[in-house]
Write a structure and sequence with these properties.
501 residues; alpha+beta; eight-stranded mixed sheet; elongated
């Protein structure tokens, strides 16, 4: 892949020199293109094309970026790109003032212009604007990528998203869908009497997830603080306080690796509902994603990672024990001994992490993690996780080795994680303590002990269902994107000069 070279380190090309000379000449003539502060816009390219019959002959005011120029002499054709698309400009010598026409001819591809003209169709039938007045609103001092090759190098596309959006109009679709998904999500929860709240990004304890945090320093307080790895614990404090349905859409920060599904900062929604359980959360997860697909795309059928995915309601629900039995061939319901469970897992080629206790629950989870996830293509809820990997989840009243938790998988990717929340402060302290012991053994991704959260639980938290959903991955699903960087406007990148991603 080509190495990214910052513009400041590149020698001026002939094209750049010419553009800067044009700027100097314009300023010498009293036409500084960076002085203009406002240009009234009355229409856009999409509206003109959609309503041509009603707008034919009408005067319009448009603004946008010149993306092409054709023709010489007394007639020029240009493509103007605004936020809604492109439209052709027809610029003729005798249709505008001579001085203005001559200045317009000197404009470059990439320049931002405002035009006044009337709507018409050319002899070839293309809807266009016949320009009578033109104003250079901003001079592009750098040439856009070459027309036929465009901006295709992903390293440069993600670093210079502004250029990516200019020359690859289809990229904008992903971010329009992202905006619509978040709008639908908020509407879905608001209609069910949830209250949207905000909780701190900086905390003295990194809790609510198994993840390595980013650390920063507060100068005034002279303490280290952690950028949040989850919004769970503050939101559950609000449930204790009597706010019975709350949610937060927010940025999360985890100091971990980057790959097609992971970015160090990403967006989630976490929601909590008093007097509900993980079954209610399954219904909400299914309702949000299937409902968004129908409203935004007009269909339940999507393509993602080379698979045809059916998002129609009625998604499969499997316990982890059932899933391991189906895909691995081990019936953990028939195993009661830790050593037997570990031996059964190893016999199938499953490895347990060195830091993990050799227990029935850890053996079950390792089998699922290493052997089952890859098979989960269509929407599937995997429920009843072992207590060892679910420190904030209520135990199953049927089998205390398991918890009332689910994760939602589509195309072997996790999109949501939900619990019947643990509200027993004594049990919660014991589980936190196990996490502390694991951390002391070298696992820096385990939960920290949060004494204030335990205090909150001691005041009493009602039975509660809670869920976290990855917004970036949901948008990947709806757009068919194969990497998270295609749905984050400004993804995290290595610093310039280091080897490309």
């Amino acid at each position: 892949m080509a190495k990214f070279v910052p513009q400041a380190e590149m020698p001026l090309s002939d094209q750049v020199r010419v553009r800067r000379e044009k700027l100097d000449n314009l300023r010498a003539e009293g036409f500084d293109p960076f002085v203009q502060t406002r240009f009234e816009v009355t229409s856009d390219s999409a509206a003109i094309k959609a309503n041509y019959e009603a707008m034919e002959g009408q005067s319009v005011r448009l603004a946008g970026r010149l993306m092409s120029k054709r023709g010489m002499g007394k007639v020029s054709f240009c493509d103007l790109q605004d936020s809604t698309g492109r439209i052709q400009l027809y610029v003729k010598f005798d249709e505008m003032e001579e001085a203005s026409f001559q200045r317009f001819k000197k404009n470059d591809i990439g320049d931002i212009v405002g035009v006044v003209g009337d709507v018409f169709k050319t002899e070839r039938g293309e809807i266009s604007v016949r320009v009578h007045e033109a104003t250079l609103l901003s001079k592009s001092l750098l040439p856009l990528p070459e027309k036929f090759h465009g901006l295709t190098d992903k390293e440069t596309r993600f670093r210079q998203r502004y250029v990516d959006l200019m020359v690859n109009p289809e990229v904008k679709r992903n971010f329009v869908i992202r905006s619509k998904f978040i709008k639908f999500l908020r509407s879905y929860l608001d209609d069910r009497n949830y209250i949207e709240v905000e909780t701190p990004v900086l905390n003295t304890i990194a809790g609510g997830a198994a993840a390595r945090p980013f650390v920063t320093h507060h100068n005034t307080l002279d303490i280290d603080m952690y950028m949040r790895i989850a919004t769970e614990l503050p939101l559950k404090r609000l449930i204790v306080g009597g706010m019975e349905r709350v949610y937060e859409v927010g940025r999360i920060f985890r100091n971990e690796g980057m790959d097609p599904k992971h970015n160090p900062e990403f967006t989630t929604v976490e929601l909590y509902q008093a007097y509900a359980d993980f079954h209610d959360m399954m219904d909400i997860a299914e309702g949000i994603i299937s409902g968004a697909a129908q409203e935004i795309l007009g269909t339940y059928e999507v393509q993602w990672m080379g698979e045809n995915i059916d998002l129609a309601p009625g998604w499969r629900r499997l316990t982890m024990v059932e899933a391991v039995k189906e895909y691995v061939g081990i019936d953990f319901d028939a195993i009661t001994d830790d050593a037997e469970a570990v031996a059964a897992a190893k016999a199938k080629g499953v490895e347990l992490a060195d830091a993990a206790e050799k227990t029935w629950g850890n053996a079950l989870y390792a089998c699922f993690d290493q052997k089952v996830e890859e098979h989960l293509i269509q929407p599937t809820f995997i429920t009843m996780y072992p207590v060892e990997v679910s420190p904030l989840t209520k135990r199953s009243p049927i089998d205390p080795r398991l918890t009332e938790r689910f994760e939602l998988f589509i195309c072997h990717s996790e999109l949501a994680n939900a619990y019947s929340e643990l509200n027993d402060p004594i049990d919660q302290r014991q589980r936190f303590q196990k996490q502390v012991e694991q951390r002391e053994r070298g696992d820096d991704e385990t939960e920290m002990l949060d004494e204030d959260f335990l205090t909150a639980l001691e005041y009493g938290m009602p039975p509660t269902g809670g869920m976290g959903m990855g917004i970036d991955r949901c948008v990947m699903l709806l757009t068919g994107a194969d990497t998270i960087r295609e749905v984050i406007l400004f993804p995290t990148m290595k610093t310039i000069g280091k080897e490309s991603q």
